[in-house]
What we know:
Structural class: mainly alpha
Amino acid sequence: MLDPLLLLALMAVGMLAGFVDAIAGGGGMITVPALLSAGLPPVAALATNKMQSAVGTGMAVITYWRRGFVALHNLIPAIALTFAGSLLGALAVSNVDVSLLNIAVPVALIGIALYFLFAPKLSDADSAARLPFGPFVPLMGFAIGFYDGLFGPGTGAFFTMGFVVFFGLGLTRATGSTKALNFISNLAALVIFIPGGHVVWPVAIVMALGQLIGGYIGARTGIRYGARIIRPLVVVVSIAMALKLLFFP
Length: 249
């Protein structure tokens, strides 16, 4: 039996993480340490985190979609390949040495933070795409989905960076599309975690309630303020994730 006060605290954690994640990603930086501190074993913490995170991300996707910032019909091939990539990554995790990613990923995240901090043209306006959307977004979805299943931290930042730099989306549209593919990669992980009995359901349910609220408010905030809040929050979250991976792996 879990302490009701602990469950209430975890619900608040889910709400905060859902808010941050709906705008800039990185909600797992908040929820996973909280779950471990609550006494969950590492695998159970990761599985429960994926479950509650999927709910918040799903709410964010619906909110961005209802306000026209996600064209889901254009993302169908990417959705399919993101799911496949994430599932393959999760299946391969026990057979692949990910130690090099402990250095490579923080470096990449710092690079993303610097780009979002100093790039002069980052805004909510779309720009010229460097790659055609149709064939290359699914390839990006597969690659980043595989990474998410294999390792995970920074997935949202990598998706957002890709949509902005390679496909010319404005920051709010890029964030909405990122949430859609992030949601799918979470579902792929749950295909493995749920049958394995790793999700702690009482915790997942109360945190999911918090995620619903936080994801909705975060998406509405991202839509209302656009690049003015997405840009600085991506910088802060990317640097925070890089520092965590470097010093608290």
